[in-house]
Amino acid sequence: xxxxxxxxxxxxxxxxxxxxxxxxxxxxxxxxxxxxxxxxxxxxxxxxxxxxxxxxxxxxxxxxxxxxxxxxxxxxxxxxxxxxxxxxxxxxxxxxxxxxxxxxxxxxxxxxxxxxxxxxxxxxxxxxxxxxxxxxxxxxxxxxxxxxxxxxxxxxxxxxxxxxxxxxxxxxxxxxxxxxxxxxxxxxxxxxxxxxxxxxxxxxxxxxxxxxxxxxxxxxxxxxxxxxxxxxxxxxxxxxxxxxxxxxxxxxxxxxxxxxxxxxxxxxxxxxxxxxxxxxxxxxxxxxxxxxxxxxxxxxxxxxxxxxxxxxxxxxxxxxxxxxxxxxxxxxxxxxxxxxxxxxxxxxxxxxxxxxxxx
Length: 359
Ligand SMILES: *Cc1c(COP(=O)(O)O)cnc(C)c1O
Fold this sequence. Notes:
By secondary structure, the chain is an alpha/beta fold. 34% of the residues lie in helices and 15% in strands. The two termini are 34 Å apart.
C-alpha cells in the first residue's frame, strides 16, 4: 500500500493509526456483530463515544465545567449564522475582526441579525497580515468579538488571542483547533468544522460556555438553531461516524502529548518550509512573516507557468493537493496535526530539486 504525501486543505490527511483502527473494527464493532454506524445513536456504544469525545475535548483544551461540547452538523458555515441567531439582536453590536474570506462570510451572516463593527480589516492589504494590538479598534460594548484563528486561504494565523476590550471571544477555529494551546478563559464559544484538523467531514465541534449562554437572545427562534436544544441531550441524530472517528483522533492527540506537543511539532514543520521559501527569491511567501500560518503555508513561484509545472511534477513525486485556493492562486501546503514530518521533508527536498532545475 502506498499513501501519498497529502497537503490537502480539507478534508485533510488523518492519522494512519486512526484509519487502520477504524478499518479493523468497521464491520464488527467490539464484537457486537454490527458496525458502529449501524447502531442507534441512543444505544450504549454510541453514547459512550459521544461522551468520551466531549470529555477529551475539555481535557485537551483545559475547559472547566462551565463548558459544554456539542457535535453539530452544517459545517462551520452554519455557525456563521447560528452564532448571531443566538446572541445578536437588532439593537446590539458584535465585533468581527476581518482577516480573510471566512471572516467576511461570518460578517455577512451576522449583519442579517444586528450591528457589526469591524475593529480591524485586512481587506485593503489583501489579507497579507493580521492586526497589531494597537490597530484593533473595538466598539463600546460588543456582545462578543468574533475572529478566525487561522486563515486557511491566505495563510495567516493568530498565535495568541486578539485583545477585545472586555467582551468574550467567539472563534472560528476550523483550520487550527487543537494545533497549539489556547487561553480558554478568553472565549465564550469556539467552533470548528472537523475536516481540517480534527477528523472527517460531517461534524462541527462547538464548545460553548454556559455563562456566555446567559447572554442568549430571549425572543423565540427555530428549535434546532438554539444551542440550548443540544445541551445535555441528542436532539436529533448526530453524525455518528464522524464523531466516532473524531474520538479516536482525540485519543491519538492525547497519547502524543497534547497541545504542547503539537505546538512544537507544527512549529518545526512550518519552520522547515518557511526556511526553504526564504532562502532566495525563487519561492516567495505571500503573507508577512509575523502573521504566517503554521497550518497553511502559502507561496508563489516566479510565474504561473512554473507554478503549474511545480504542481504537476510534485504530484508525480507523490506530493499532492498543493494547489493554492482558487481565489489566491499559487501554492498552498496544508500541514495540519496529522501531516507527518516526513511529508514536509519530502516537500522541502522536492522544492530544492525544482529550484535547482528551473531557478
Ligand atoms: C473550511 C473553513 C470553513 C468552512 O467550513 P465548512 O465546514 O465547509 O462550512 C470555515 N472557516 C474556516 C476558517 C475554514 O477553514
